[in-house]
Design a protein that fits this description.
GO terms for molecular function: DNA binding; DNA-directed DNA polymerase activity; nucleotide binding. The chain is of the alpha+beta class. About 40% of the residues lie in helices and about 20% in strands. The chain folds into 4 domains: about 90 residues, Alpha-Beta Plaits (2-Layer Sandwich); about 160 residues, no CATH class; about 220 residues, Alpha-Beta Complex (Palm domain of DNA polymerase); about 150 residues, Orthogonal Bundle (Topoisomerase I, Chain A, domain 4). Helix 9 packs across helix 12.
Length: about 700
Amino acid sequence: MVFAVDIEDDVVRMWSRNGEDAVVERDGSYAPSLYVGATDDKLGWLDDRLTSDLKVVRTAFEARLTSLRADEPAAVLRVDVERPSEIDTLAREIRTIHEPEQGGPGTYRLFNIDISPKFRYCLETETCPVPSEELRLLSLSLSDRALANRDLSKLTCNGEPIGENSVAVLEGVAQQIEEHDPDVLVLSTADLVPLLSDAARDNGVDLQLGRLPGYQQLASESTFESYGRVGHSAARYDVPGRTIVDWSNSFLWGEGRLPGMLDLVERSWKPLQETAWGSIGNIFTAIQIRQAFEWDVLVPWRAWEAESFKPMRTLHDADRGGFTFEPDVGFHENVVEIDFASLYPNIMCVHNLSPETVRCTCHDGDDVPWLGYSVCDEPGFVPSVLQPIIDDRAALKQRIRETDDPEEARRLEHRVDALKWILVTCFGYQGFSNSKFGRIEVHESINAFAREIILDAKEVLEAGGWTVVHGIVDSLWVTPREDDHAPLDELTDVISREQEIDLEHEDDFEWVCFVPTKDGQRGALTKYFGKVAGRDEYKYRGIELRQRSTPEYVADVQRDLVDTLDEHREPEPVADRLARHLNELRSGSVDPEKLTIQTRVSKPLNAYQQQNRTVAALQRYEDHGMERSPGQDIHYVVVDDDKRSRERVRLQFEADDYDPEFYAKLLFRAAESVLSPLEWDRDRIKRYLRDTQNARLTSYS
C-alpha cells in the first residue's frame, strides 16, 4: 500500500514498497471536487457561469446529504477543478459572487473545501495511505543555535555526529540516505530541508533528500491562538517519495511515535506526513470526515449550527461543566482511585449523543437529565466514529497486559496513547464553534449525563461504607469509612452495570495528599500527589514538578521532599531536607543548565510593555540572531533578578552562573506544595528553618 503521496499542480505521485525497492505510480488525471448548494435557479446560473472558468474541468448535478440532520438528499452542483491548489480559490470566488439577483451573503453553501490535498486525494480516489511494510527511518538533528548560525558541523544523524565541517556533514548525510534509503525523515526542525538542500547546492555536494530532486514548501510559519493560548506552527516542507516528520512541530510524534501515528493514518486515511503535523483536533476531524464520506454526507466549509431556542432555566442548567467534589485537604491513608473508562466518549456512545440525534425533529422526549432534551433512537454519527476507537483501545490495553515482549508492549502503548488523545478531544469538539460535526446541545448533554453518573456513583459508594475524599470529571478517590464496608469491586460492578460504563480500579495508594489553593481556603481541584501501594512509585498531578516551566533541579528537589515525607510522615524532616538543598543552591554548586526555565512566548518582542524576564530572554535571542515568534518556547537561566535589563537572564547555552535567591523562592514554593496538606505554609517553613538554624548556632557557642 501507499506510504507517501506527492501532489504537484498537474500530477500525483503515489509511493509504495516492493520488497527493498520504493516504486512510484503517477496519476495525471486527478481533478478534485467541491460541491455547491443553493436553490435550483441559482445552481443553474452558477453552472452556466463556471463553464467558461479555466480552473473548472467539468460540472454535474447530484443529490447529496448536506447535513447530518438532513432527512433527504438535496440537489447540489459538483465542480471538478483542474488543480488541488485551485479549490480554495474557486470556493472564495463563488462565495463572494455579487451579481444582481444571483449572489449575496448566504446564497451559496460550499462543501468539501478545506480538506488537505493529500487527504482529499486518498478519500476521493479510495487510495489507502497505510504502508503494508515496516517503514525505514532516518533522524537528523541540529540545535537552535547551530541552525541560526547555519553551522552544519553540529548536525547529528541518528544521534551521532557525522562530520567536522559543513562539506563533511553534507557528504555524510548523502551517504546515510543512500545506504538506508529511508521512507521517513525525522527532523529536529523542517527548516533542515532548505538548509541542507541549499548548502549542498552551494558546496557542490550531491545530496538529495527526496527520491526525486528538489523540495516544496507547503506552508510558511505562522502564529495562532487556541482556547486563549498562543501557538506557533513551523514552516512545512515536502520532499518527493519520503515523509517528513518535524518532531518540534508534531504533538503526535511526542505522544504516539510512529506506531500511534500509523494507527491514526489507518483510521482517518490522512497520509502520514499530514498526520505528523496535524493537531489532535485536526486528526479527529479527519476521522469524522472519512466517516462522512462513507455516509455520503458532504462536509461543510464553515460549519455553523445555530443553538436551538431554550427557556432561561434550561440555559442556566445547561451552562455547567462536569461535577467536581472539593477535595478534603490533608494527608489521607488507604485511598483508592477509581475511574470511569473513557467517560465522555462512552456517554456519547451509550446515550447516542450526536448533532443529529440530540433534540431531533422526529420525536419528543425527556432523555437528558436536568435539561429535558430528547435523543433520537436512530444510530448517531458521533457514536459510529467513537465506538471503534473505544473498543480498539480497550483491546490494545488487554494485549499489553498479556504480552511479555517489552518491544511489543511499547508499540502497543504508543497506539493506546494516540487513541487516548483522540478520545480526550472528541468531547471538546462538540462545543467548538469551528467543529465540522459539533453542536452545543451535544456538549451540554454530555456534561448533564456526566454529572448524574458521578452523583449516582457517590451515592452507591457511600451506601456501601466508603467516603469520597475527592472527585473530578471521571475519577473518584475513596477511603473505607467502616470496618464492615462492602468490597469496592462489588460496588464498582454495580455502578458499571447501572451506567453501562466500566468503573475501573485505577490505583491503591498508601497515602495521598490533596493540596490547598494558594489562599488556603479550599482544596485545589487538580493538585495532589501520593504513594502508590505495593510499588516504589508516586503519582503527581498539578504540583510544580508537573509544570513545564519548572526547572529540572526544582523538580528533582520536590521529588526528594515527597520521598522524605513518605519516609517520615512528619513535616519537620521535610523542612530539614529542604535546608540541605537550599545550602547546596546557595553555595553555587548546582549546574546552571538544570536551572533552565522554559516558557512560551505570547506576543512579539515589541508588544511587551514591561521589561520582564521573557523580554530579557527575547532580547538575548535577538542578539544571537535567533528570532522567537509568539507560540515558541524560550529557555533561560535567571542570573540577577534585581536587574531589569537583558543582563537579568542568560540563555541556556550561555549560562555559567545563577541567582541563588531567585531559585530559593522556587524551592520554597515547591516545598509549600508538599507541606501545605500538613498545614505548613511558606511562612511556617521559613520560621522553622530560621528557628532551627538559631538553635544550632546556639548549641555551638
